[in-house]
Model the fold of this input.
Amino acid sequence: MTVAGLAHSPIVAVRAGRLVDVVAGALLPDVVLLIRAERVEAIVPGDSPIPDGAELIDLTGHTVMPGLIDGHSHLIGDLEYADVPAIGMTAEREILVGVRNATVTLRAGVTSVRDVGTFRAFLDLELRDAIEDGLVVGPRMQGAGAYVTVPGGAGEVTGLPGSEVPPEMRFGLVQTPADVRRVVDAICDRGADLIKVLATGAVLTRGTEPGQVELDRPMLEAAVEAATARGRYVAAHAHGAEGIKLAVRAGVRSIEHGSLMDDEAIALMAEHGTYLVADIYNGDWIAAEGLRGSWPAETMRKNDETTEAQRLGFRKAVAAGVRIAFGTDSGVYPHGTNAIQLPLMVHHGMTPLGAVRAATVVAAEMMGWADRVGTLSVGHYADLLAVPGDPFEAADGTGLAALQAPTLVMKGGSVVRDDRRLSEPPGR
Ligand SMILES: [Zn+2]
Done:
């Protein structure tokens, strides 16, 4: 758009009863956000005149904050049950379900997502591009494209002979550092935003153990080198302490899960500035759902071994000053309930504002998107949500539960959810 065109594009004015400044860590009372061409153009006092012709969205009585960022999500396909993943579903259906997941996620106030993998390679990148092109309603997305994993490892379709697994589900299989370099290059060629490596076993992947190292130091270093050379970063799935340490020392940007971290692993993350993305809610969901669905004893055991241990480690990591970025593993549990994890993060040692920072400005930094999302600063995308009252009032974080059902959600200045009518008194 030309500069002249920009000047004539319509202005949206959002009057916020309270605006959360996640950078300064402050609540600003009664301000107006002026939004033009998808971005915040100015932030002015609430009694300032509204520009002629501006559309006014009155959120007096509400708290307005940047849209949430889920740093660990899987939007493609159905929920990842303890069964052989996705093999019975066509790629077309996996995409269509992904479209539904993306819409549900955005309407829940999650305006950006880091998608950390799909068993069937590259469907996430199709979804990302379709959202970017305006074909699909969904959050801004980064995608990992494919899992970099050893054969039979956490990112492999296990429980079937390899010959029965389609090749697009085995794209990222590696056994040597040379394999890793080749695969990382190929994933970058396909347009992935980041590289996802499976450094240890997993809870849901049968036949793997969360505490077990799967990628050795030379393979992890090869991944970081190859990704860096292509301007990408590495996110490492790592439950066990040994796998976490290998990955941190190799230079990954984030540790996913981190369930069995020990004091040394925590100290290393703090020292290296590695982000911890700990999905501390979904263990509860797996425990309940697994019981209902009679999931295999192996899965339930691994979930039991990681759930409380992860929360204990999380608490220590918060105290040690590790960078905490919000990530839920949505896709293992239902999409659109992402914010259910926020009160739990406060219960395990963060302040309410700290938890929201993890889900906004800190997650944006981790993704390399600090210049466009994560805060409602001038020049950033007008990605925001609003909830009634003050969700920060309760020091124990219980007020953050309201973020699961925002009254209003906006992405790039366009309203994608507006439930204000629903909360008006009956009879009007
Ligand atoms: Zn995951």
Summary: Residues 96 and 246 are 37 Å apart (CA to CA). The first strand starts at residue 11 and ends at 21. The mean pLDDT is 94. The two ends are 42 Å apart (CA to CA).
